[in-house]
Structures are given as structure tokens and as C-alpha cells.
Amino acid sequence: MAAPKKSRGASGGQGKPGRSLALILIAMVALTGGMFLADQPTPRLGIDLAGGTSITLEAKSEPGQESAVNKTNMDTAVQIMERRVNGLGVSEAEVQTQGDRNIIVNIPKGTNSAQAREQVGTTAKLYFRPVLTVAQGMPTPEPSASSSGKPSPSTSPSASASKGATATDKDKGKSSTTPSATATTQGRAVTGALKADSTPSPGASDKPKGDKQKADASPSSSASAPSAAEQAAATKLQKQFAELDCSSKELRSKAARGVKPTDSAVACSSDGAEKYLLGPSEVSGTEVDSAKANFDQQRGMWIVQMEFTDKGSKQFQKITGKLSQQQPPQNQFAIALDGEVVSAPSVRTTLSGSAEISGSFTQQSAEDLANVLSYGALPLSFNEQSVTTVTAALGGEQLRAGLIAGAIGLALVVIYLVVYYRGLAFIALLSLLTSGILTYTLMSLLGPAIGFALNLPAVCGAIVAIGITADSFIVYFERIRDEIREGRTLRPAVERAWPRARRTILVSDFVSFLAAAVLFVVTVGKVQGFAFTLGLTTLLDVVVVFFFTKPLMTLMARTKFFSSGHPWSGLDPKRLGAKPPLRRSRRVTAPTDPKEA
Predict the structure, then answer these.
(1) Is 272 left (phi over 0), alpha (psi -120 to 50) or beta?
(2) Where are the alpha helices (H) located in 486-558, listed in sequence order?
(3) Can you give the pLDDT at residue 2?
(4) Closest C-alpha among 464, 465, 448, 458 to residue 531
(5) Residue 510 — very low, low, confident or very high, per pLDDT cuts 50/70/90?
(6) E-assigned strands of 344-491?
(7) Residue 559: left (phi > 0), alpha (psi -120 to 50), or beta?
(8) What is the mean pLDDT of the chain?
(9) Is 586 strand, coil or helix?
(10) Which of 126, 252, 273, 404 is the one with CA 20 to 30 A from 195?
């Protein structure tokens, strides 16, 4: 009874090859259709094949911090730059150190390469600083100052809210969120997203207005008389503020250099319209836990929402509590990014928890700011040493050489299959074609999906995969031939050979995939492209052998050309050395056994 069950099982297995072939055909059609629907008919190319931009950045040390340019900080900067560029969706950007002070960034041609160039060297050091004085962004005659070198409060009443609207809390009513009369629509506001603490500082409301303005106008909050050194520093700072010119990007960048977060400083707005005299930093950007760009449907504007850490939330609550008791412009705080003021809202109430930056953002500028804030500040500042355009001429020549080598290798494989396996070469070639279609479509779709880009090492991995795939066919064909040599006919030989060949193929592909996975993990840059392609094609080899080669072999075994053992089928029993007479001899002599007699 066991033999008929095996026969039915084998027959049933042979009766289902059409389903597997139909399944893989549907998969190929779906992938090809998706490739054209995604408007990605070809794989994305890496910088060595498509060309792009190569940026050389040189690390610079701040005065007194020469030791900051070290391997640890350089490696950290590389990691942050990679996350920023990848966050923009730029395919296969390469970030690597060169020497002790340089970082090379290679950005392939793409829709986001320009934004990546702008962001890649941005330090993204964010500080929340109290505003002491605001003026127009052009140089002005030195304002009148007292003998102590304090800035005159009369320099900025009309400009106190020109850059930012009121910082508000979402849980408060409109009465606490109304901007001052001098606020403009060009500003950006920071709004607290959690519960506000409206309790003023003890004694703050009892202090005379004039005394409060006089005390707050000084860069120092101490009530004691300033020392001679403090007076000299204040005078120097006031002079810098009067001479500050924010009319060009170069001048704004110059003003931001060498500014320590613990000192008072002068700064320009990001558009150069205003200049600020700022107090020491109260909250650092390192206390921003996360940031993301969102579109506010109610206000019809793009905003950047920030979540503070527990420490940052307490610091933010403390500074807004102090500023809410001040008079303009000392009730404003500046959001300084890399030394430039991106927003300077005024505060009416104590805020804590999370905040949002809103105002004159476009979608791109909001996403750019959220991107640099999310992935952290660079530990070093960088100068853009050189920017060069990389042509794809050399890569194109190497690609052609690689494709020629691959074509020669494929031709040799085909010749070998035809000479040695004859008719079985037809099945092998169809399987190779199927594997090639699946590999090409997946590479094209993985470009926009995960940013995969085809580079020269990846092409090498695809060429190596030809041998891996052909090896799987050869293993199966040899198992079938072994069964025929044992005297079995083709159809049983196909089914009996499959379990043995399947185990060998799976073990071989597992070893190849494991090697590719280890190579992908332990390497960086272009070598990962080789490892990724090798792993992908190894997985596709399993799919093709299971769902195409085996079912197609089952169907071909039913044809007369193969089942009759045609000399050109590659399965001729005589050519393979089969010995059926020995089996017939045993079956003839069996009845002559003395026990049966």
C-alpha cells in the first residue's frame, strides 16, 4: 500500500508545475509594471557611474580648542553627515575622512543633491539666547552709552518684535497670544506645546519699570556695580554691535565665528534684516530631543516642532519665565542656529515641554531645519575647501569594460552548457533570463524605495551571481543524470533527484548569503554595494530554482524529446552510461529462488 501512495504523491507533485510557473510569471509582470509606474525604468547609478558633486570639508578649531579636531570628533561628524544626507533621500552619498582634518562628501546627481550640499557642512549648533538689543542690519553710529558701557534701551523699541511674533502656549487663550503692535508677518514664533506656568517670579511685578529696564539692559544680570573688566567687555561688545553689517552672507558668517555659548554676543538674522545683541545661552540645542516639519492646517503654514528633554524642558521653562516679566526688547529670546538668528519671538507667559518654530518657512526650509536638528550638531566647524564636479567618463569606461567581461563570461557559460548539457541548456538559459529580469526590476525599484544605487562593485556582484545561479542548475542536472544512470526513466528521475539537489542548493546559497551579509556589515562605502547585490542575487537564485527551474524541468520531462532520451537532450541513457540489463537480470533471476520453487 505504501508504493501506490508514493506514486500518487509523485504524480500530484508532477501535476502542479504550471502553478509555480504562473506565479513567477505574475511576479515578473507585477515588478515590471511597478518599475514603469514608479517612472524608474533603469536602476539609479552611483557617483562613479552617473557623476555628481564632490565636496572637501576642512575641520577648523575654535580659539583655545585646538585639541577638538581629533579622530573621535571626526568620526562623529562623518556619522552625522551621513544621517543628514540619507534623511534627505540622496542615493548612495559617500562620506569619509581623508587625513586628520578633511572629510570628503560625494553626492551623486539627484533631486536633493543641492540641499545635501547646503546641509552637509552645517554645524547646526542651536542656542536659545535672551535678546538685549535689536537694530537694523546695517552699520549704525555708535549709540549713546553710559559710563559703564551699557547699551541704551532707546535703540530698539520699534524693532523689538520685528523679527518674531509672540511666543505663546497652546493652552492659553487669544488674549495671551496676541503679538505686539510692532510685530511683522515676516517673523517666526516659538510656541510652547505644554502647560504654561503663569506665575511670575517673586517680586518681579513689584520692581519699578524704570529700574527693571535699567537692570535688564546690561549684559550682566548682577545687581552689583560692574568691574573695570566687565565695563571694557561691554564697551567692546557695544562697539561690535554698532559696526556689525548683516548685508551679505559672508559678513553674517564672519560675525558668527568664535562665539561661545557662555558669553554675550552679537548676531545677524538669517535674512540680514536685523542684528541682535544677545545674552549668554540659556538652553542648548543638545536638549532638543526630536524635531520634525509639519504643515499647520489652521494657520496654513509650515512649522518645525521640537520636543525637549527633561533637562531642556526645565531650562526652557526657566528662561521663558524670566523673559515674560521683561519689557521689549528684553522679553524676546533668539533662536540662534550656527550663530545666526532664525527667530526672535517675544514671551508673554512661562512655557515648557515642547516648542514650535513657525513663520516664513517653505516646506523645504522647514524640512531642512528639522533634519539638521533631529540628527544633532556637528562636534566641529568646517570650512568648504573645494567643490568639484565628478564626471562619469571614467566610470562609464569601467562599466563598459565590466559589461564586456560579464558578456564574455556569460558566453562561456552558455557554450559550456550547450556542449555538455545540450538540450538541458535551454532550461538553464531560460532560468538565467528569469533571474536577470527579476534582478533588474528589483534594482530599479529599490532605488526610490531605499536609495539603492548601482555602482561598479555592485555590477561586479551581479556578474558573480551568474556563476552562482548556473551552479544551482548544474547541481540539479547532475542529480537527474545520477538517477538515470541508476536505470530510472526520466520522470521518476526528475522527482527523486530534486530532494537531494534541493539540500545542496540551499546549503550553497546559505553560505553565499552569509558571506554577503557579513561583508555588508563589516565594510563601508562601495564594498557594501557589492555585498548587497551578491546577497540579493543569492536570494533570487533560490526563488528561480524552486519556482521556475524545477517546474520547467518537470514539464520538459513529459515531452518526447527529453523523455525518450534523445541524443541532443543531454539525458541519453547510453551516453550517460546507464546499465539497465543488470536490473533486468536481477528481476529475471528472482523467481528462480529455491524458496519460491
Answers:
(1) left
(2) 490-522, 526-544, 550-556
(3) 45
(4) 458
(5) very high
(6) 346-347, 354-358, 381-390
(7) beta
(8) 74
(9) helix
(10) 126
Q: Measured between alpha carbons, how far is 538 from 217 in angstroms, rounded to an integer? A: 70
Residues 6+ apart with CB under 8 A from 491: 14, 557, 558, 563
Contacts of residue 442, Cβ cutoff 8 Å, sequence gap at least 6 = 31, 536, 540
Query: Residue 88: what residue type?
Result: L
Return d(Cα 456, Cα 465) in angstroms, integer. 14
Residue range 225-254: mean pLDDT, rounded: 81
Predicted TM-score (pTM) of this structure: 0.54
pLDDT score for 121 = 66
Average confidence (pLDDT) over 15-23: 84
Question: CB count, 10 Å around CB of 567?
Answer: 11
Lowest-confidence pick of 176-180, 327-331, 530-534? 176-180
Q: What is the dihedral of CA 416, 422, 427, 429, to 10 degrees?
A: 30
DSSP string, 31-54: HHHHHHHTT--S--B-HHHH-EEE
> Mean pLDDT across the stretch 482-506?
90
Q: Are 283 and 352 in contact (CB under 8 A)?
A: no
Q: Of 128, 170, 183, whose CA–CA distance to 299 is shortest? A: 170
pLDDT tens, position by position, 232-241: 888 888 888 8
**DSSP H helical ranges for 38-104:** 47-50, 71-87
CB 107 within 8 A of CB 47: yes
Which residue in this structure is represented by grid cell 512661562? 350
